[in-house]
């Protein structure tokens, strides 16, 4: 699933492609991805100029010169692309915005879980979807205020998009590893220093992922993500990625927290006392 770093990468791609461009045609190849009626979208989009792009959590927004916004949510397999000629359309293109430049912006989604909709504004969409502040924008004080009185374990809270928007499963595991906090710690047991460390870890993980355009194999060897073996390990030819980068003799543990696969270091992240 595209997480915040992937969606920020998509937003930057679209920013270069579509800002300042007028939409000359709204082409629908598969209406399954539309959360707003096709005719409504066509009337709203054709003739409008895209003035800016924004992102909130895992949602990307194209701002239109009439004040409306086109919302892109990428579901499990969504992506974006660009092409000029139909023969060059990316496979699984579901919707294409024809632009005044002659290029087309493609919404690509093999599994068709993504959605495209029209909204009155970013703020109205955020309110309707009950999304918290973006994970890149939330302050340490806001994070502590939202969590410090909660008796729930940390991992599900960090995944809750109403608390902060944009943290997915692997990101939360990485954040907690970098902060050296066990995912089953109860939020109200964290100290002010630990909340500060948690906030710094969120920023570290997200900025690192964005800087590497979410190409996991390029992440530092000090990151836990390599234990997931999603692509080429940072330690090719060895099994070192199965062990903690800080404690090379300690194997990474895989368990389930709140029904989600969870990776931890038993040394860095001791299990909280009952």
From TrEMBL:
Domain Formamidopyrimidine-DNA glycosylase catalytic: 2-114
Highest taxon listed in the record's lineage: Bacteria
GO molecular function: 8-oxo-7,8-dihydroguanine DNA N-glycosylase activity; class I DNA-(apurinic or apyrimidinic site) endonuclease activity; damaged DNA binding; zinc ion binding
Pfam family, one: H2TH
Keywords: DNA damage, DNA repair, DNA-binding, Glycosidase, Hydrolase, Lyase, Multifunctional enzyme
GO BP term (any one): base-excision repair
SMART domains, A to Z: Fapy_DNA_glyco, H2TH
SUPFAM superfamilies: N-terminal domain of MutM-like DNA repair proteins (SSF81624), S13-like H2TH domain (SSF46946)
Reactions mediated catalytically: Hydrolysis of DNA containing ring-opened 7-methylguanine residues, releasing 2,6-diamino-4-hydroxy-5-(N-methyl)formamidopyrimidine; 2'-deoxyribonucleotide-(2'-deoxyribose 5'-phosphate)-2'-deoxyribonucleotide-DNA = a 3'-end 2'-deoxyribonucleotide-(2,3-dehydro-2,3-deoxyribose 5'-phosphate)-DNA + a 5'-end 5'-phospho-2'-deoxyribonucleoside-DNA + H(+)
UniProt cross-references to InterPro entries, sorted A to Z: FPG_cat, FPG_Glyclase, FPG_N, H2TH_FPG, Ribosomal_uS13-like_H2TH
Subunit-level organization: Monomer.
Family: Belongs to the FPG family.
Name this polypeptide is given: DNA-(Apurinic or apyrimidinic site) lyase
Organism this protein belongs to: Hymenobacter mucosus
């Amino acid at each position: 699933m595209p997480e915040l770093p992937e969606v920020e990468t998509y937003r930057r791609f679209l920013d270069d492609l579509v800002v300042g461009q007028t939409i000359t045609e709204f082409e629908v190849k598969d209406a399954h991805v539309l959360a707003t009626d096709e005719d409504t979208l066509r009337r709203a989009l054709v003739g409008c100029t895209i003035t800016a792009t924004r992102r909130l959590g895992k949602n990307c927004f194209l701002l239109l010169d009439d004040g409306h916004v086109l919302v892109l949510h990428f579901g499990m397999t969504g992506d974006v692309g660009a092409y000029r000629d139909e023969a060059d359309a990316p496979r699984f293109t579901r919707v294409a915005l024809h632009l005044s430049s002659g290029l087309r912006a493609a919404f690509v989604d093999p599994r068709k879980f993504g959605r495209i909709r029209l909204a009155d504004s970013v703020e109205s969409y955020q309110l309707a979807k009950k999304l918290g502040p973006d994970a890149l924008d939330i302050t340490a004080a806001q994070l502590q205020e939202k969590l410090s009185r909660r008796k729930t374990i940390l991992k599900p809270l960090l995944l809750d998009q109403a608390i902060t928007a944009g943290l997915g499963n692997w990101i939360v595991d990485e954040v907690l590893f970098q902060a050296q906090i066990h995912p089953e710690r109860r939020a109200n047991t964290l100290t002010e220093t630990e909340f500060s460390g948690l906030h710094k870890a969120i920023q570290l993980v997200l900025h690192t992922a964005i800087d590497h355009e979410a190409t996991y194999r390029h992440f530092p060897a000090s990151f836990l993500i390599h234990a997931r073996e999603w692509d080429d390990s940072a330690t090719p030819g060895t099994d070192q990625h199965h062990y903690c980068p800080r404690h090379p003799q300690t194997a990474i543990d895989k368990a389930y927290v709140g029904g989600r696969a969870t990776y931890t270091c038993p040394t860095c992240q001791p299990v909280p006392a009952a």
